[in-house]
């Protein structure tokens, strides 16, 4: 694996304020990419990600907005491409993960999750297409999730959105491969993250989740999977979902 295979490339990472998103931005920067750091509204945390990337000797800029709004998504992509004059990699990581019993989820809550976790993947990827077509190593990497494949209680909307991301990934791979653009999905399992919702408590379904390695994963381990798919070593991989879950399916 070439440690500098993203040298001279530009990557947009959505939802990059902390946790997995920040780790992805850092991993891609470590491979040589300049990074466009997107946050919905937490400019302080986004600024920390920018500073971390810059400390690695790469350029970074911060873009802000609600990607479930088509106009905002288009503007964010435009700003990303304008920042460094090109766009080679799009990582669709932005998502929200509220909990709620199926019978109590309101339609407004359902639509909010779909807007951020699924609609935004479509909107950002479509807006980025003209820029990615100009790259000789274009890649889109979408972030899914283990429960999008296994199901779980108390997060019907989140699971549905993440399952949709997998289907969208496959459909985009079919259409974009003739343009030289790979499209893949990374599905994390239990990952050690700092939670800003649910008062910092772990989701209810985490209590009965097990895996073979006997620990939670680290954001950096998810980020390495994304970096592989975004880099030169992943050019023969498209339409796939790479599971990073410590062997949860086998436990």
From TrEMBL:
Gene3D superfamilies membership: NAD(P)-binding Rossmann-like Domain
Residues annotated as signal peptide: none
Top-level division of the source organism's lineage: Bacteria
Keywords associated with the record: Oxidoreductase
InterPro entries, A to Z: NAD(P)-bd_dom_sf, SDR, SDR_fam
Keyword field contains Oxidoreductase: yes
Any single Pfam family the record assigns to this protein: adh_short_C2
Entry keyword annotation includes Manganese: no
Family: Belongs to the short-chain dehydrogenases/reductases (SDR) family.
The protein's name: SDR family oxidoreductase
Annotated source species: Mycoplana rhizolycopersici
């Amino acid at each position: 694996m070439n440690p500098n295979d993203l040298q001279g490339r530009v990557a947009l990472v959505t939802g990059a304020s902390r946790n997995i998103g920040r780790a992805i931005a850092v991993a891609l920067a470590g491979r040589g990419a300049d990074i466009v750091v997107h946050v919905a509204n937490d400019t302080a945390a986004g600024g920390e990600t920018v500073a971390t990337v810059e400390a690695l000797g790469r350029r970074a800029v911060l873009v802000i907005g609600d990607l479930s709004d088509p106009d905002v998504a288009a503007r964010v992509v435009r700003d990303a491409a304008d920042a460094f004059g090109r766009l080679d990699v799009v990582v669709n990581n932005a998502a929200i993960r509220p909990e709620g019993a199926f019978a109590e989820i309101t339609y407004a809550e359902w639509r909010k999750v779909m807007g951020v976790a699924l609609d935004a993947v479509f909107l950002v990827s479509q807006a980025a297409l003209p820029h990615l077509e100009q790259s000789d190593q274009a890649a889109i990497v979408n972030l899914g999730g283990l429960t999008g494949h296994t199901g779980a209680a108390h997060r019907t909307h989140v699971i549905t959105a993440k399952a949709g991301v997998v289907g969208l990934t496959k459909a985009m791979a079919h259409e974009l491969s003739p343009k030289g653009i790979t499209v893949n999905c990374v599905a994390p399992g239990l990952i050690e993250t700092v939670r800003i919702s649910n008062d910092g408590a772990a989701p209810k379904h985490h209590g009965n989740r097990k895996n073979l390695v006997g620990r939670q994963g680290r954001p950096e381990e998810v980020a390495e999977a994304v970096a592989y798919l975004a880099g030169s070593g992943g050019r023969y991989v498209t339409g796939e979902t790479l599971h990073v879950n410590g062997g949860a399916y086998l436990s």
